[in-house]
Amino acid sequence: MADESHKRDAAGGEGELVKVTVKGLILDPASNDPIVILREEGGERFLPIWIGIFEANAIALRLEGVNTPRPLSHDLMASIIEGMNSRLERIVVCDLKDSTFFAQLVLRADGRETVIDARPSDAIALALRTQATIFVEADVFDKAQQVELSNRITDEEKIKKWLEEVDPEDLGKYTM
């Protein structure tokens, strides 16, 4: 479990939850790091989250409907959840601190909810495998706009301009 200061009440709502979908995966043009793009359902907000290559691969395989001959880590986690008569109800990207996003898995078993700390990339990969709903706390969108992108890339203005001007329909053209 992560630092308790990052735990939020994903079950009850310290903040407004915004339903999102995975719009796609793109590569950061400056660093070639993968970015998963979450888009607000019925809205215009996007949330780019820089992730690792292995998590990007796990997300891409699910988005493309590719089944592997043996279960990968996220497939295994989904099987364990199901095998324990649990269900992943939702994931929540719940915080952004020091340029790091935090997420939570909200599991239900025997009428009881359990909230587990997770990296957003792992939570998203697992949600895609279990058809769980993906949420972002509304204030995370606001915090993300305030973060200096220079912590992640070498050419801050280039990526800011690119993220502001990219047409949502064009994201598929940049997928991995």
The whole-angstrom Rg is: 16 Å
Please give the domain count: 1
Give the overall silhouette: globular
Structural class: alpha+beta
CATH topology: Bifunctional nuclease domain
Strand order of the largest sheet: 3-2-1-7-4-5-6
Query: Helicity range of the residues?
Result: 25-40%
If classified by CATH, what would the architecture be?
Answer: Roll
**Annotation field: number of helices:** 5
Please trace the helix and strand order, writing H or E for each element: EEEHHEEEHEHH
- Residue stretches low in confidence (pLDDT < 50, at least 5 long) are 1-8, 148-154
Major beta sheet, specifics?
A: 7 strands, mixed
Provide the residue-averaged pLDDT: 83
Q: What is the straight-line distance between the termini? A: 31 Å
CATH superfamily: Bifunctional nuclease domain
CATH class category label: Alpha Beta
Strand content: 25-35%
Tally of extended strands? 7
Summarize the structure.
The chain has a single domain (20-174), classed as Bifunctional nuclease domain (Roll), CATH 3.10.690.10.
Task: Walk me through what this model shows.
Strand 2 (34-40) and strand 3 (46-50) form a beta hairpin. The protein has a single domain, classed as Bifunctional nuclease domain. The protein starts with 16 loop residues before the first strand and ends in an 11-residue tail after the last helix. The model is unreliable at 1-8 and 148-154 (pLDDT under 50). The chain has helices spanning 53-63, 73-83, 120-130, 138-146, 156-165; strands spanning 17-27, 34-40, 46-50, 87-97, 100-109, 112-118, 133-137. It contains 5 helices and 7 strands; from the N terminus they run E-E-E-H-H-E-E-E-H-E-H-H. A 7-stranded mixed β-sheet has the order 3-2-1-7-4-5-6. The chain is an alpha+beta fold.
